[in-house]
Amino acid sequence: MADETTASRAIALEDWTETPGEWHGEVQGFGGEVALIFVRAEPGKGPRLHSHPYPETFIVRAGRALYTIGDREIEAGPGEILVVPAGVPHKFRSLGPETLESIDIHPRERFITEWLE
Question: Does the bond joining 97 to the residue before it have cis omega, within 30 degrees of 0?
């Protein structure tokens, strides 16, 4: 049986997928079973309405955001966690005045999204 720890490694910041001027950096395709999105969204910014074929978990680290999940709107801040069920349309917007920082967890090796707007 192979030692699974030999596949473990630290992922350097410069290896993340970055979208300059946008709202996130991603870690995906590194052999894990999860894709992570490290969100840094300035006030008023965030993704448009979308869904995933799996649940998504948001962990808010700093700032505040308004999450639209299905027909509900939920304001969340540091230390709060939200879970969006698979297939449910959702989006969020950083409320400011500080930058929103969150970690978004996708339980798949690759980020799969259907953009709805």
Answer: yes
